[in-house]
Write a structure and sequence with these properties.
Largest sheet: none
Number of helices: 10
Order of helices and strands: HHHHHHHHHH
Number of strands: 0
Distance between the termini: 30 Å
Structural class: mainly alpha
Shape: globular
Length: 207
Protein backbone atom coordinates (compact mmCIF):
# COMPACT_ATOMS: atom_id res chain seq x y z
CA UNK A 1 0.00 0.00 0.00
CA UNK A 2 1.33 3.41 -1.01
CA UNK A 3 0.15 5.98 1.55
CA UNK A 4 0.73 8.92 -0.77
CA UNK A 5 -1.34 7.33 -3.53
CA UNK A 6 -4.03 6.40 -1.02
CA UNK A 7 -4.26 9.97 0.30
CA UNK A 8 -4.38 11.27 -3.27
CA UNK A 9 -7.25 8.89 -4.04
CA UNK A 10 -9.17 9.88 -0.90
CA UNK A 11 -8.81 13.57 -1.79
CA UNK A 12 -9.91 13.06 -5.40
CA UNK A 13 -12.76 10.71 -4.46
CA UNK A 14 -14.01 13.13 -1.81
CA UNK A 15 -14.15 16.00 -4.29
CA UNK A 16 -16.02 13.82 -6.77
CA UNK A 17 -18.39 12.63 -4.05
CA UNK A 18 -19.44 16.10 -2.91
CA UNK A 19 -19.99 17.31 -6.48
CA UNK A 20 -23.80 17.52 -6.85
CA UNK A 21 -25.36 14.91 -9.09
CA UNK A 22 -28.42 12.73 -9.39
CA UNK A 23 -27.43 10.68 -6.31
CA UNK A 24 -27.33 13.85 -4.24
CA UNK A 25 -30.75 14.86 -5.57
CA UNK A 26 -32.23 11.47 -4.61
CA UNK A 27 -30.88 11.60 -1.05
CA UNK A 28 -31.79 15.25 -0.49
CA UNK A 29 -35.34 14.76 -1.67
CA UNK A 30 -35.77 11.67 0.48
CA UNK A 31 -34.33 13.45 3.54
CA UNK A 32 -36.34 16.65 3.21
CA UNK A 33 -39.66 15.20 2.11
CA UNK A 34 -39.84 11.61 3.34
CA UNK A 35 -37.59 11.68 6.38
CA UNK A 36 -34.38 10.20 7.69
CA UNK A 37 -35.27 6.52 7.23
CA UNK A 38 -36.12 6.92 3.55
CA UNK A 39 -32.95 8.96 2.96
CA UNK A 40 -30.93 6.18 4.60
CA UNK A 41 -32.61 3.59 2.38
CA UNK A 42 -31.80 5.66 -0.72
CA UNK A 43 -28.17 5.98 0.43
CA UNK A 44 -27.88 2.22 0.92
CA UNK A 45 -29.37 1.59 -2.53
CA UNK A 46 -26.84 3.94 -4.12
CA UNK A 47 -24.02 2.28 -2.18
CA UNK A 48 -25.10 -1.20 -3.31
CA UNK A 49 -25.21 -0.07 -6.93
CA UNK A 50 -21.66 1.31 -6.61
CA UNK A 51 -20.53 -1.88 -4.89
CA UNK A 52 -21.81 -4.03 -7.75
CA UNK A 53 -20.03 -1.81 -10.28
CA UNK A 54 -16.85 -2.01 -8.19
CA UNK A 55 -17.04 -5.79 -8.16
CA UNK A 56 -17.80 -5.88 -11.90
CA UNK A 57 -14.80 -3.69 -12.66
CA UNK A 58 -12.52 -5.87 -10.54
CA UNK A 59 -13.74 -8.88 -12.53
CA UNK A 60 -13.06 -7.15 -15.83
CA UNK A 61 -16.66 -6.39 -16.79
CA UNK A 62 -16.07 -2.65 -16.61
CA UNK A 63 -13.49 -2.95 -19.37
CA UNK A 64 -16.19 -4.53 -21.55
CA UNK A 65 -18.29 -1.37 -21.28
CA UNK A 66 -15.29 0.71 -22.20
CA UNK A 67 -14.43 -1.51 -25.16
CA UNK A 68 -17.92 -2.33 -26.44
CA UNK A 69 -19.98 0.57 -27.75
CA UNK A 70 -23.06 -1.68 -28.04
CA UNK A 71 -22.92 -2.79 -24.40
CA UNK A 72 -22.30 0.74 -23.19
CA UNK A 73 -25.15 2.13 -25.31
CA UNK A 74 -27.65 -0.47 -24.10
CA UNK A 75 -26.95 0.20 -20.43
CA UNK A 76 -26.78 3.95 -21.05
CA UNK A 77 -30.21 4.18 -22.67
CA UNK A 78 -31.76 1.89 -20.05
CA UNK A 79 -30.48 4.23 -17.35
CA UNK A 80 -31.55 7.34 -19.25
CA UNK A 81 -35.08 6.01 -19.77
CA UNK A 82 -35.33 5.10 -16.09
CA UNK A 83 -34.29 8.60 -14.99
CA UNK A 84 -36.66 10.30 -17.43
CA UNK A 85 -39.49 8.02 -16.27
CA UNK A 86 -38.83 8.87 -12.62
CA UNK A 87 -38.61 12.58 -13.41
CA UNK A 88 -41.75 12.62 -15.53
CA UNK A 89 -43.75 10.98 -12.74
CA UNK A 90 -42.66 13.67 -10.29
CA UNK A 91 -43.29 16.49 -12.77
CA UNK A 92 -46.72 15.30 -13.89
CA UNK A 93 -48.02 14.02 -10.55
CA UNK A 94 -46.34 15.86 -7.68
CA UNK A 95 -47.79 15.07 -4.31
CA UNK A 96 -50.00 17.62 -2.57
CA UNK A 97 -49.32 16.07 0.85
CA UNK A 98 -47.37 13.30 2.47
CA UNK A 99 -48.92 9.94 3.21
CA UNK A 100 -49.09 9.30 6.93
CA UNK A 101 -49.98 5.63 7.16
CA UNK A 102 -47.20 3.42 8.51
CA UNK A 103 -47.53 0.96 5.67
CA UNK A 104 -47.20 3.70 3.05
CA UNK A 105 -44.17 5.11 4.83
CA UNK A 106 -42.56 1.68 4.77
CA UNK A 107 -43.34 1.36 1.06
CA UNK A 108 -41.73 4.71 0.35
CA UNK A 109 -38.61 3.48 2.11
CA UNK A 110 -38.47 0.49 -0.20
CA UNK A 111 -39.03 2.75 -3.20
CA UNK A 112 -36.19 5.01 -2.06
CA UNK A 113 -33.80 2.05 -1.84
CA UNK A 114 -34.64 0.73 -5.31
CA UNK A 115 -34.59 4.22 -6.79
CA UNK A 116 -31.05 4.77 -5.56
CA UNK A 117 -29.95 1.26 -6.51
CA UNK A 118 -31.34 1.23 -10.06
CA UNK A 119 -30.15 4.76 -10.79
CA UNK A 120 -26.57 3.65 -10.17
CA UNK A 121 -26.85 0.17 -11.61
CA UNK A 122 -28.26 1.49 -14.90
CA UNK A 123 -25.62 4.20 -15.25
CA UNK A 124 -22.67 2.83 -17.24
CA UNK A 125 -20.68 5.95 -16.41
CA UNK A 126 -20.16 4.53 -12.92
CA UNK A 127 -18.48 1.44 -14.40
CA UNK A 128 -16.45 3.49 -16.88
CA UNK A 129 -15.46 5.88 -14.09
CA UNK A 130 -14.20 3.02 -11.94
CA UNK A 131 -12.33 1.29 -14.76
CA UNK A 132 -10.55 4.51 -15.81
CA UNK A 133 -10.13 6.23 -12.43
CA UNK A 134 -9.22 3.47 -9.97
CA UNK A 135 -6.19 1.93 -11.74
CA UNK A 136 -4.39 5.27 -11.51
CA UNK A 137 -4.15 4.80 -7.74
CA UNK A 138 -3.09 1.15 -7.66
CA UNK A 139 0.50 1.00 -6.32
CA UNK A 140 3.17 -0.95 -8.15
CA UNK A 141 3.19 -4.61 -7.22
CA UNK A 142 -0.39 -4.67 -5.91
CA UNK A 143 -3.09 -6.87 -7.45
CA UNK A 144 -5.04 -4.59 -9.76
CA UNK A 145 -8.38 -6.39 -9.32
CA UNK A 146 -8.33 -6.71 -5.53
CA UNK A 147 -6.89 -3.24 -4.91
CA UNK A 148 -9.34 -1.64 -7.33
CA UNK A 149 -12.20 -3.26 -5.43
CA UNK A 150 -10.70 -1.96 -2.16
CA UNK A 151 -10.63 1.56 -3.61
CA UNK A 152 -14.22 1.22 -4.81
CA UNK A 153 -15.26 0.20 -1.28
CA UNK A 154 -13.37 3.19 0.10
CA UNK A 155 -15.24 5.45 -2.32
CA UNK A 156 -18.52 3.95 -1.11
CA UNK A 157 -17.59 4.64 2.53
CA UNK A 158 -16.84 8.28 1.65
CA UNK A 159 -20.15 8.49 -0.21
CA UNK A 160 -22.14 7.15 2.75
CA UNK A 161 -20.34 9.54 5.11
CA UNK A 162 -21.22 12.48 2.84
CA UNK A 163 -24.84 11.38 2.61
CA UNK A 164 -24.96 11.15 6.42
CA UNK A 165 -23.86 14.80 6.60
CA UNK A 166 -26.53 15.80 4.05
CA UNK A 167 -29.24 13.90 5.91
CA UNK A 168 -28.26 15.43 9.25
CA UNK A 169 -28.32 18.92 7.72
CA UNK A 170 -31.69 18.59 5.98
CA UNK A 171 -33.80 16.60 8.44
CA UNK A 172 -34.23 19.58 10.86
CA UNK A 173 -35.97 21.40 7.99
CA UNK A 174 -38.35 18.50 7.49
CA UNK A 175 -41.38 20.08 9.16
CA UNK A 176 -41.25 23.13 6.88
CA UNK A 177 -40.44 21.10 3.78
CA UNK A 178 -43.32 18.70 4.41
CA UNK A 179 -45.88 21.46 3.87
CA UNK A 180 -48.08 20.77 0.79
CA UNK A 181 -46.63 23.58 -1.32
CA UNK A 182 -43.05 22.62 -0.42
CA UNK A 183 -43.77 18.98 -1.27
CA UNK A 184 -45.05 19.93 -4.73
CA UNK A 185 -42.10 22.24 -5.40
CA UNK A 186 -39.55 19.64 -4.29
CA UNK A 187 -41.19 16.89 -6.32
CA UNK A 188 -41.15 19.02 -9.47
CA UNK A 189 -37.63 20.29 -8.85
CA UNK A 190 -36.33 16.77 -8.34
CA UNK A 191 -38.29 15.55 -11.36
CA UNK A 192 -36.70 18.24 -13.51
CA UNK A 193 -33.24 17.24 -12.28
CA UNK A 194 -33.91 13.57 -13.06
CA UNK A 195 -35.14 14.37 -16.59
CA UNK A 196 -32.16 16.65 -17.22
CA UNK A 197 -29.68 14.00 -16.07
CA UNK A 198 -31.50 11.36 -18.12
CA UNK A 199 -31.26 13.46 -21.28
CA UNK A 200 -27.63 14.25 -20.54
CA UNK A 201 -26.85 10.57 -20.04
CA UNK A 202 -28.61 9.60 -23.29
CA UNK A 203 -26.70 12.28 -25.21
CA UNK A 204 -23.30 11.41 -23.76
CA UNK A 205 -20.85 9.84 -26.24
CA UNK A 206 -19.41 6.38 -25.79
CA UNK A 207 -16.06 6.32 -23.97
Amino acid sequence: MDNHLLLAFISAAFLLTVTPGVDTAIVLRAATVDGRRQALMASLGIALGCLIWGAAVSLGLGALLRASEVAYTLVKFAGALYLVWLGARLLLKPRAALESAAGEAYSRGGDAFWRGFLTNLLNPKVGVFYVTFLPQFVPAGAGVASYSFFLACLHIVLTLAWFAVLIAATVPLGRFLRQPLAVKVLDRLTGGIFVAFGIRLAASPAP
